[in-house]
Design a protein that fits this description.
CATH superfamily of the largest domain: Spore Coat Polysaccharide Biosynthesis Protein SpsA, Chain A
Number of helices: 10
Helix content: 25-40%
CATH topology of the largest domain: Spore Coat Polysaccharide Biosynthesis Protein SpsA, Chain A
Number of domains: 2
Mean pLDDT: 94
CATH class of the largest domain: Alpha Beta
Radius of gyration: 17 Å
Structural class: alpha/beta
Distance between the termini: 24 Å
Order of helices and strands: HEEEHEHEHEHEHEEEEHHHEH
Length: 253
């Protein structure tokens, strides 16, 4: 069985956003942002791509673009809960062994990064995999809004297990400085277990959902990539995304 037959890419989406209202439908070159993300997921060619929506407007936009979308309960507390619900809708028989959680606000993500995240899961015994890139900027390093992955890599190995995720680097940390990138691949049973666990104390304090996994003994593999994908959270971010995805910009490979 090929990786395409074993993997599904799920994109959680909701309209509620305080900094950028109606974010999934933000127009970028005549196309809704959520549709751009769908196209990036499709370009990765790791499996079918499905949007897990909770708003009729998002469903309509994705369907008009001939994308696949399912409606999930608007009351679900997180994107992880949303993709778990969507997985049960699109695959009640449990065919898919791997689930990629792709954020819906990454319209410029390199499809190769999606492939890298999945590959890290498949080549390790981790429950979950994610991405990180080296931090070269001192301001970024000191910014608590930039989540750091604590992981040590042996030699030139591109994948390691996460020791922790933090907003502020601990004084004793002598490993690489890594910007965590919030894309995840799960083994199906790991996703099901993760959403069944209660919010951990550290997760609640730091507002970092991945800490729930570590605090319950789950292993997270970290794969290195060259750059941090550009996320859209504010009107200024949207302007930048429009410039990056202007007709002269390269299409995803």
């Amino acid at each position: 069985m090929s990786v395409f037959d074993e993997t599904v890419v799920l994109i959680p989406s909701r309209m509620a956003s305080t900094r950028l209202p109606d974010k999934p439908l933000a127009d970028i070159g005549g196309t809704a942002m959520i549709v751009h993300v769908v196209r990036r997921g499709e370009a990765a060619e790791v499996g079918p791509v499905v949007v897990a929506a909770c708003d009729a407007e998002v469903v309509e936009a994705v369907e008009m673009a001939n994308g696949e979308v399912v409606m999930t309960d608007p009351a679900l507390p997180s994107g992880s809960d949303r993709i778990a619900a969507a997985l049960n809708i699109v695959d009640p028989g449990g065919v898919y062994r791997y689930v990629v959680n792709l954020q819906g606000d990454l319209p410029t993500i390199d499809p190769e990064a999606i492939r890298t995240c999945l590959s890290a899961l498949r080549q390790t015994e981790a429950d979950i995999s994610t991405l990180a890139a080296h931090i070269d900027d001192a301001e970024e390093l000191g910014n608590p809004n930039v989540v750091k992955a604590l992981a040590r890599f042996e030699g030139d190995a591109p994948v390691s297990l996460a020791e922790d995720f933090v907003r502020v680097l601990p004084e004793h940390w002598d490993g690489p400085h890594l910007h965590h990138i919030g894309i995840y691949a799960y083994r199906r049973e790991a996703l099901e277990r993760f959403v069944s666990l209660p919010v951990s104390a550290r997760e609640n304090t730091e507002k970092l959902e991945q800490l729930r996994a570590l605090d319950n003994g789950m292993k997270i593999a970290v794969a290195l990539v060259d750059t941090v994908p550009f996320g859209v959270d504010t009107p200024a971010d949207l302007d930048r995304a429009r410039a990056l995805l202007a007709p002269s910009a390269a299409s995803p490979q």
